[in-house]
Write a structure and sequence with these properties.
2 copies of one chain form a homodimer. With 210 residues, chain A is mainly α. Helix content of chain A is 70%, strand content 0%. The first copy, chain A, folds into 2 domains: 72 residues, Arc Repressor Mutant, subunit A (Orthogonal Bundle); 119 residues, Orthogonal Bundle (Tetracycline Repressor, domain 2), CATH 1.10.357. Chain A is elongated, with a radius of gyration of 19 Å. The N and C termini of chain A lie far apart (53 Å). At the A-B interface, helix 7, helix 8, helix 9 and helix 10 of A face helix 7, helix 8, helix 9 and helix 10 of B. Chains A, B: It comes from Actinocorallia aurantiaca. Chains A, B: Keywords: DNA-binding, Transcription, Transcription regulation. Chains A, B: This is TetR/AcrR family transcriptional regulator.
Chain lengths: 210, 210
């Protein structure tokens, strides 16, 4: 039975499984949890395959065979996060929905539990092409999913039909990422509101029209 | 004579010196050049105090005494860069000036010579509080200097007098940094234009008014 499960479930095929059933998926999830815990404690520069193997309880040779480097561990954690479900806001107002999305971004960096992990994954992407690709994939997927709030606003007549929804999402979150990751300036509620209001003003002016 | 020069010139006092005259300033400049060259070749994760000392030609004990860590080397390189003069655009049109500033940001990351160094410094900031503080200082200084193009536009009547100039600068560059450093998506000339047009539309709508 175990052999069959291993043969039919590659890590990629099980990527969409949130609560994994097969042994391969369970191993991958255990390694992800250990990776995130290590990143939270030590940052990306402190991440080692060795310590993840020990923490995960997965056999060391298995971990080393599948995830050869700290970058591969970070990239795979991002790959699994990409498949995680997340709460897409739907308040009936684009301004409210964008505000919720913006608040989610800020919380991801400032929450005491998730903040250190989020920062460590961004640091991993700044250092290794493998993690950078995984972060790009993660974020472009999120942009595409979040675009639904813009599509609904277009249907309600709040925005021009030609609005490039993903560009509006990028414009909303970019000023927050700039403060959170680049200038490391504090982000006040006014900064979040300003990011949303500026993106909306540009959208209404047709700047994001295709 | 040498002793006198050392006693009167601290690295901080000579920060404003572009072509340094004293021995301390010359040492600092040599270490900066070696740091930037090492960052270009090896990235921040490959930066060591040892290799910078060798490359700079400065006595190893001097380098180790003043710059104890790779983070200190990266932070000091940013500190010196902050004092460097740079070309502030003045084309007589805010749109043109913002476009020049945006192009400078993109070029800093995509130019074959400066790109690897810029990325390495951002990676350093993502990993160490010391470099993060130095990058924040560098960028907030640049925002303050670049605000001059907005002040001139306000004087020409292009924008509301209450416009927060530095917020408009941040809004202009943030979508570019988001693509360059976070999503690592390519930045097309259209992306640069859109960043400028969106920030301007928001500014005209009064979003950045204090």
């Amino acid at each position: 039975m175990k052999k069959t499960a291993n043969a039919t479930e590659s890590p990629l095929e099980s990527a969409g499984t949130v609560r994994p059933g097969g042994r391969t998926a369970r191993t991958r999830e255990a390694v992800r949890r250990a990776t995130l815990a290590e990143l939270a404690e030590k940052g990306f520069s402190g991440l080692t395959v060795e310590s993840v193997a020990i923490r995960s309880g997965v056999h060391k040779t298995t971990v080393y065979r599948r995830w050869r480097t700290p970058a591969a561990l970070a990239a795979d954690a991002l790959g699994l996060a990409e498949a995680d479900p997340w709460p897409l806001p739907d308040a009936g107002s684009l301004s409210e929905d964008l505000r919720s999305l913006a608040a989610q971004v800020v919380e991801g960096f400032t929450d005491p539990l998730t903040g250190p992990v989020t920062r460590a994954l961004v640091a991993a992407a700044a250092q290794t092409p493998e993690a950078a690709l995984a972060l790009r994939s993660y974020l472009t997927t999120r942009h595409r999913q979040a675009a639904a709030v813009v599509h609904r606003a277009v249907e309600r007549g709040e925005l021009p039909a030609a609005t490039d929804a993903e560009e509006l999402i990028r414009a909303t979150v970019a000023p927050l990422y700039y403060r959170l990751c680049i200038t490391t300036e504090p982000v006040s509620p006014e900064d979040t509101t300003r990011a949303v209001t500026a993106a909306l003003a540009a959208a209404r002016a047709g700047v994001f029209s295709r």
